[in-house]
Amino acid sequence: MYSKFIKLILPLPSFFEIALPSKEEPNIFHVDIAPQSIACPNCQGRTVCHDRALRRFRHGYAWHIGVLWIELFVPRQRCKNYGFTFTFDYGLGLVHSSTESFRREITKRCHGRSIADVARDYALPYTTVERWFYTYAPEQLVEESAKHICVDEFALRKGHNYATSVLNAETGRILAIVPHRDQEAIESVLKKVVGSIQTVVSDFAAAMAGAIQAVYPTAIHVLDRFHLIQFFTDAPAAQTTLLR
């Protein structure tokens, strides 16, 4: 019965054998995987295990316990035909220290709540939750009429690729996403929104202000709390530096 319960809260392939956690680490479940033939993703030919490493990944969450981790050996395979090497993740979508199932679950928790609140509840970096949220956001786009919206940029890859999104401020649902973060991109994403927009919440960027004025000239432009607090927090520090 306990084994069935664990498989319910930790959805994993049927050929995974989940061991009970230790008393010292009650939130870490070791997974044993029966030997199997792994095909090359390019030529579908035979491969051999080049190396393997024991790693831990966030995979679930339980109240009063916290994040549930799985521990397993992740193989590094080499193709016999071409010498191509690759990491095999058993379809779990392993990235850094989380599975795709965990990332999607955290994304769902962001609906109707701020990313900062979710990040704090699950002891995750804000930028990590933000990246996960917007990675899976295109799958969750909805078309609904809105009166109050939030527009913001986010990093697809920090320092390299950015995009802009619009959310319904009342429901928290994602209404539109476009690549890039310049004024042209912001204007294009705002034009995708359906409804009589009364309020637009954004940061202090000049491109944001220009786009909002161009698309919704009669709407009230509200500066979001996060950047407003950050602005007043940084101002005294900058003044002190100048005085020195």
TrEMBL record:
<dbReference type="Pfam" id="PF13542">
    <property type="entry name" value="HTH_Tnp_ISL3"/>
</dbReference>
<dbReference type="InterPro" id="IPR047951">
    <property type="entry name" value="Transpos_ISL3"/>
</dbReference>
<dbReference type="Pfam" id="PF01610">
    <property type="entry name" value="DDE_Tnp_ISL3"/>
</dbReference>
<feature type="domain" description="Transposase IS204/IS1001/IS1096/IS1165 DDE">
    <location>
        <begin position="149"/>
        <end position="235"/>
    </location>
</feature>
<dbReference type="InterPro" id="IPR002560">
    <property type="entry name" value="Transposase_DDE"/>
</dbReference>
<dbReference type="InterPro" id="IPR032877">
    <property type="entry name" value="Transposase_HTH"/>
</dbReference>
<protein>
    <submittedName>
        <fullName>Transposase</fullName>
    </submittedName>
</protein>
<feature type="domain" description="Transposase IS204/IS1001/IS1096/IS1165 helix-turn-helix">
    <location>
        <begin position="98"/>
        <end position="136"/>
    </location>
</feature>
